[in-house]
Structures are given as structure tokens and as C-alpha cells.
Automatic annotation (TrEMBL):
This is Uncharacterized protein. The lineage of its organism: Bacteria, Pseudomonadati, Pseudomonadota, Gammaproteobacteria, Oceanospirillales. The chain crosses the membrane at residues 6-25, 37-56, 62-82, 94-114. It comes from Amphritea balenae. The keyword Transmembrane applies. Keywords: Membrane, Transmembrane, Transmembrane helix.
Length: 116
């Protein structure tokens, strides 16, 4: 069975790949809607798990705060994948900042897992 940190890191990378607007990843934007919605759903579920299960139980620890931050970013990213028009304009304009912070969280998780 995979450790939950590996699953969370994978979901963060999945969210980054589907939410980015870089020309290198244009093929992902052209995938059928059900595939993109499935990716958004997986990212959303990972964000819910991070925020509502892990973070709420471990808010006084470093990884609890990391789970809260990364979970909120995952939730925002899932909406950016599914339908960005549902977000306020300020969040849509800060897409690059949200994705950069999610990249930082994915690197934090990934490097920690690698060191274990």
C-alpha cells in the first residue's frame, strides 16, 4: 500500500499538470471534459482529506499546518481545473501564485518522502 504522503504528492502534481496554462501542457487542456473533471475530482478529494481529516487532527504540528496549506491549495486548484469562472476574479488572476505555492508544497512533500 502506498503511504498517504506519496498519494498527496501525486495529487498535487496531477493538479499542477492540469491547472497550468503553459504551452508545454496544452495537450492536457484538450483532453475530453470527463477526464479533466475526473482529475479535478481527485484533486478535490485529496484537498478535502488534507484539510478536513489530517490537518484538523494535527493543527499543532508542522505537518498539520502543511496539510492545511496544501489542502486549501488543492481545493483551489481543483476549481481552477473544473471551472475557473466560479472563483472570484482575484483568485483567477493569482493562478500563477496558487500553482507556485502548490509546487512548493509538492516539493516539500516529495523531498521529505525521498529522504525517508
Amino acid at each position: 500500500m502506498l503511504p498517504m504522503g506519496t498519494i498527496m504528492t501525486s495529487c498535487m502534481v496531477l493538479g499542477l499538470l492540469f491547472a497550468t496554462r503553459l504551452p508545454l501542457f496544452n495537450q492536457l487542456q484538450r483532453l475530453p471534459v470527463p477526464i479533466r473533471n475526473t482529475a479535478a475530482g481527485l484533486v478535490f478529494l485529496a484537498g478535502c482529506w488534507n484539510v478536513f481529516w489530517y490537518a484538523m487532527r494535527h493543527l499543532t504540528e508542522f505537518w498539520g499546518v502543511a496539510a492545511l496549506v496544501s489542502g486549501l491549495l488543492l481545493l483551489l486548484t481543483s476549481v481552477l481545473i473544473y471551472d475557473p469562472r466560479r472563483l472570484p476574479a482575484v483568485v483567477r488572476r493569482s493562478r500563477a501564485a496558487v500553482l507556485f505555492m502548490l509546487l512548493c508544497c509538492a516539493l516539500l512533500y516529495g523531498i521529505t518522502i525521498y529522504r525517508l
